[in-house]
Give the backbone structure.
Amino acid sequence: MTEVRGGRPIPQESRELIARLDRIQTWSLSPAFLAIIGVGFLFTFYDIFDINVSFVQTCVQLVQGCTPENALSSLPLPTVLNLVGYVIGTLVLSPISDRIGRRNMLLITMLITGLGSLYTALAPDYANFIISRTVTGIGIGADLAIVNTYVGEVSPRRSRARFTTVVFIMSALGAFFGVWLGLFLTTAKAPWPSGLPFALGLESGWRWMYAVGAILALVAILLRFRLPESPRWLLQRGNHQEAEVVTASMELRAAKTGALDLATTENVPTHWPPTRRVPYADIFTHPVYLRRMILLFCMWFIGYITVYAYAAGFTSIFTAVGIPGPEAGVIAAVGTIGFVAAAVIMSFVVELLERRYWLPVATVVTFIGVAVVAIGGGTSIPLDFVGAMLIFAGFNLWVSPSYAMTAEHFPTRARSTGFAIVDGVGHVGGGIGILVLAPIIPHLNVVGALILVSCFLIISSILAQFTVHTRNRSFEEVSP
């Protein structure tokens, strides 16, 4: 382990607390806290995916001359500005969580997100729709960074990726809910599998989509008041007494599943690194963290081109190449089953491999999905369903291990900040990708469009192989 010198000495009692945290090998907060965090993530991903099917109706109602066939051409602007909101929110709010605490900022970010969703539901025109999506993005961008930081810091050392993935199951359910509700509320009835036989096709169905999102955000806010603060963050800020209370509670719960190992301070650093007034300085002035930041930013930026093309535009891609809107919506909705299945499966197997090895696996699964669609020639609904499920499973497969890996690559004093830079600003890749790809896709067949969108995962998975080994290592060892 790299020893830290030149900063504040870590009091012996704080070193002992860190050792006590590192010996815990099971989830040691209330199981309800996993659900509380999960509800917030359910809403976050509901909001990311609710535009997928519903945007066709939004565009037809708010954009002059918009039709289901050309809706893709109007998708880039709200998507890009939503992602610009991610960047603004995560760069401004995430560093504040490194100063005032994870829990407090989790309340603020969910409040902003919920207000943005309510604004979207009430948007009178396309300009306000775009502005509201930007406001929503401000909250979501910071929330993603802080939630993943928080989960990593309160999870056992041997299972950080696993519990990040467990929470991510709720994200997958949010995506599933967002796409299927869009199909139910905004598309006309049609015989299965060309549509949803019991769809409501409400004239303002897309507004109800965002109203539901605002309600989910309110529920998440009320639940998050129950969360404890991260004990690692408390120790860095010198609040030993509160950290002791949280740690003791975690130990008591963990001891119910078996005797705890002896706590040893052998691998715990003796000094906190010099405190910077602005958390960004801990990243940009430190050569190790600067290199990690550049690498991870490139990985996320390029990978998000694929992720957001599918997350926000899967339905629009299919309608752009001539598939009827209700049928395209059904294919996207069925595809989300793969999204949920991948999250559930990964919660059991994610710790079997180093985080970075999952990205090539995800890329292979995605391209198998494209191949299945290709075998059907884009005209076989059953094969389109199977291919869509594999595609959604594939691009989802790499997200949760990448979340865990990213949080592990930065120190506690600037973990939210580092995550914000690489993941938050990396979201711009999704927006730029849609801007560049949207004019090209209508000139391709469905298979060509899917290959074009998916190929960016190859580059992202290659970059991931240059990250450091983090599995089953303490935070202080990986990022002192």
Remarks:
- The radius of gyration is 22 Å.
- The chain is about 70% helix and 0% strand.
